[in-house]
Amino acid sequence: MPYEPRMVRLVPNGPPDKGLTPLELDQADFQSPLPEQHWHVFFEDDEIGLTVGVWDTTTMQETFGPYPGDEFVSILEGDFAMVDGTGNATRAGIGDCVAFRNGAPMSWKQQGYLKKFFITLLSPNAETPQIYTADGAVIIVDPDTPLKASSKPGEPIEREHISFRNDTGNMTVGVWECETAEFEMEPFSVHEYVQVIDGEATITEAAGTTHNVRASDCFFIPKGTLCKWSIPTHIKKYYAQVAT
């Protein structure tokens, strides 16, 4: 049967029949002793270097160097510090959603256990960009940031703030909200990772499958997924979109 993209709900422990898989690690990637790490990949597109999954780790610090990809994460457990070349650290923890810039020189450091959902974009054909500072490369997305109107008169009321756009312009991270709306069934135009901040919506796929999503739910909609959104009163979300 031909491939038909479908919405994917992200669950912290991976699918019940699979769980999380241990990762084989290389000491060269760490300036600390080797941690224990596991993951599950919910979606990947090798052609563009897109991966969506859940990942966990014990105490560790990575080797200092260029960050491997543009990434957006939701921290489910624990906290971490992203350390730059001067020793300054940007800290984030449980409940935070954070974007990272591909190629920025820094080192992930943490004490104790951490688990995150992630969407990473690292093109297999692109050279690592030459970036000499981590300034502005770690963005903790503020759910309360002021939003600007993004819809036209007569359309459902939508507001948005773009918090991060990668250097190649094909990954965008931000906050979006919408009032009561019934959107048409149509193919999704981008890959999108979502974490609902508040409110709710029903997403219906072409085959009739419905997904009710509400605060704290995380999911991924691959490009081309035929679906429609129904928003009874209001929804607000973090998002990370990848255009191809």
TrEMBL record:
Residues 168-239 form the (S)-ureidoglycine aminohydrolase cupin domain. This is (S)-ureidoglycine aminohydrolase cupin domain-containing protein. It comes from Phaeobacter gallaeciensis.
